[in-house]
Structure formats: C-alpha cells, structure tokens
Amino acid sequence: MAKNTTTAEDVDHYIAAIADEQMRKAMETLRETIRSVAPDADEVISYKMPAFMYKGMLVYYCNFKKHYSLFLASHGSMAKFADDIEPYKTSTGTLQFDPAKPLPKTLIKKLVKARLIENETKALGKKKK
Q1: CATH code, 11-128
Q2: Which string of DSSP letters, residue by residue, matches 19-85?
Q3: pTM value?
C-alpha cells in the first residue's frame, strides 16, 4: 500500500496540507458528505488519517499519491453493499478511487448510515450486558 502523503495533528490541517487541488477538493467533499450523515460524530486523526468516531470508530479517509480511500472500519459494511461497490477498487474494508471520479455522495451516505447503525447496535448490545 502506498504511504499517505500528508500528516497533521487535526483534520483541517491535514486537508489544507494536500498540495494537489483536485485531491484536496475531493477530500473536502468526502468530509462534508460524511459529516452530513453523522453530524454528532467527532473528527479525529487516527493512524495519521482523518477519521470520524461515533460510539466507536465510524470511518477513516485518506489521500494517497494517486487515489484516496474510504476505510469503513467494518468488513460487514463492505459485504452488505457488494453490488454497490463492485465498480470500485477495493481492499480489505476499503474503497479506493481517483479524485477525478469520486464516489457518488449517495453511496457514501449509504455506507456511513450503515456504519452508524452498526455502531449503535454494538453500543446497545454492550449496555445490555
């Protein structure tokens, strides 16, 4: 796997440090789309990548030299949406795509909503014990 090209202490600095304008805009759009679905999630840097946390890790996203990735922090989400993600390059729990051909916002929203439900369900299960 290629090394991500940017590191920072917070998400704003991470994105601002991306030199390629098209990549930076793609990352901003991805961030805004995730935030629109998960407004109560906390933004963090984890493993040197921007991430959203809500009742546990929700998603990571990261830029690389020639692509960017959305890490779902769950293998179950990938399986549930196999047909939707089939056109995209995937790796374990990860969607990779070119900033010139970003993931559709509707797909990002669907994936993040599924992750929210997974985390909510997991949190409820822990409370019952």
Answers
A1: 3.90.1150.200
A2: --HHHHHHHHHHHHHHHHH-TTPEEEEETTEEEEESSSEEEEEEE-SS-EEEE-S-HHHHHHTHHHH
A3: 0.85
